[in-house]
TrEMBL record:
This is Nuclear transport factor 2 family protein. It comes from the Bacteria. It comes from Actinomycetospora chibensis. Residues 14-106 form the SnoaL-like domain. Gene3D superfamilies: 3.10.450.50.
Length: 120
């Protein structure tokens, strides 16, 4: 069971994207809630274990994440970033909208154009 932390929502998302930069799926366990839900153009994932496994798979093609801007409104954090992958020529502009409670991400909605990934 996840415990409460004293991280702010912004700190939580910084830790989340730091783990992405390191391709460290195990560190995500420290920032994702047990019942985290992800929704995006290419799928829906529920629960900590399935989200960690999904991200571990994604790290196989991610070469970099370039954060452009972060917006914080209470527990809501929207991160705009360029997702660089081995599967696409150009970086993919992505928006990640996360809901953070007690230092843990409970929900993520990702918005991006999936067409470059689908044509590979």
């Amino acid at each position: 069971m996840t415990t409460t932390t004293h991280r702010t929502p912004a700190d939580t998302m910084t830790a989340y994207f730091d783990a992405w930069q390191r391709h460290d799926a195990e560190s995500l366990r420290d920032v994702l809630a047990d019942d985290v839900v992800f929704d995006g153009p290419m799928g829906h994932v529920e629960g900590l274990e399935d989200n960690v496994a999904s991200l571990r798979g994604l790290f196989g093609i991610v070469t970099a994440v370039t954060i452009r801007h972060v917006f914080v409104d209470g527990p809501e954090v929207a991160t705009i970033y360029d997702l660089h992958t081995t599967a696409t020529e150009a970086p993919m502009l992505t928006v990640n909208w996360a809901h953070v409670v007690d230092g843990r991400v409970t929900g993520i909605r990702a918005v991006f154009d999936p067409r470059p990934l689908l044509s590979t």
